[in-house]
Amino acid sequence: MTGPRIALVTCRPGPRVSVDRDLPVLVAALEAAGAEASAEVWDDDGVDWASFDLAVIRSTWDYSWRADAFTAWAEECGKLTRLANPAPVVRWNTDKRYLGDLVAAGVPTVPTRYTAPGEPVGLPDDHEYVVKPASGAGARFAARYTPDEHATAVRQVERMHAEGFTAMVQPYVRGIDTAGERALQFVGGRPLHASRKGAVLTPGTPYDARKVAHPGLEPWTPTAAELAVAESALAAVPDGPELLYARVDLVAGEGGEPLVMELELVEPNLFLWLHERSVPRVVEAVLDAAGR
Q1: Cβ(169)–Cβ(153) under 8 Å?
Q2: Angle between helices 23-32 and 279-290 (to 10 degrees)
Q3: SS3 annotation, 239-286
Q4: Peptide bond between residue 269 and the one before it cis (omega within 30 degrees of 0)
Q5: What is the pLDDT of residues 91-144, one digit of tens each?
Q6: Do 137 and 125 touch, CB atoms closer than 8 A?
Q7: CA proximity to 23, closest of 35, 36, 40
Q8: Which helix (H) or strand (E) holds 185?
């Protein structure tokens, strides 16, 4: 009797795509546990998704440039096999306007404004801020500005609008420069591990320059307050879906309180290369999902 067939979903390699260091590790660990596992490209028309017992979205890190195509793929794949995370979660989480839902649910969140194509740019003139696309990953098309750099920021938003992107504007949280960002990972609804990284956006870095997405990454022990905020964010996901994996990115507010920067439910890097002891728990959760 053979084990479950599991697809770990990734994307085609390219100059703008990071290498998924965890992918071969997970494939090998699942194979060692008795599964038939393979890495499959999400937009490869030759993949028979119905032949798998489970498709786990992992490193589809090109999706943000083709979000509509990716969500359409997720909808179709979810009809053919069990998809983790599910297609409704993918659709909700690929547009960072989901942060508004977290705010409405009372989750402490970095304040965010949005400007869609055709709307006025409307940038701050009294504090440092960040501009990035509402559909984006790896700090692509993201930049940090002071009020003196207004003209450059306007050009960024105008280019994003011209390419069909909605821009989001957030105050730059200065706690990032001292305390960094914390990424709390969950698998099967339970805390897995946590990491901390340094500031991604440095002053003067052009928005279209490639950034180091996770500078100075190191293990982190989350505080009780950080865990509470992360869990409140997960509880606010519409319709209470079953999540195989999740990553909650937190920063420290002016008073040191944890704020949600992003909630990553589609293709978060799990940083298993930094947390090797977490691999068995991820394998267990994947096999459990495949057997349902």
Answers
A1: no
A2: 60
A3: CCCCCCEEEEEEEECCCCCEEEEEEECCCCCCCCCCCHHHHHHHHHHH
A4: no
A5: 999 999 999 999 999 999 999 999 999 998 889 999 999 999 888 765 678 899
A6: no
A7: 40
A8: strand 181-187
Average pLDDT over residues 12-20: 86
pLDDT at 258 over 80: yes
Alpha helices in the chain (DSSP H): 23-32, 67-80, 87-93, 98-104, 150-162, 175-179, 224-235, 279-290
In the sheet where 113-115 sits, what is the strand order? 113-115, 167-171, 129-133, 143-145
- Give the catalytic positions in this structure: 210, 247, 264
The residue to which tokens 């490193």 are assigned: 59
Return the half-sphere exposure (C-beta side, CA atoms, 13 A cut-off) of residue 177.
Answer: 8
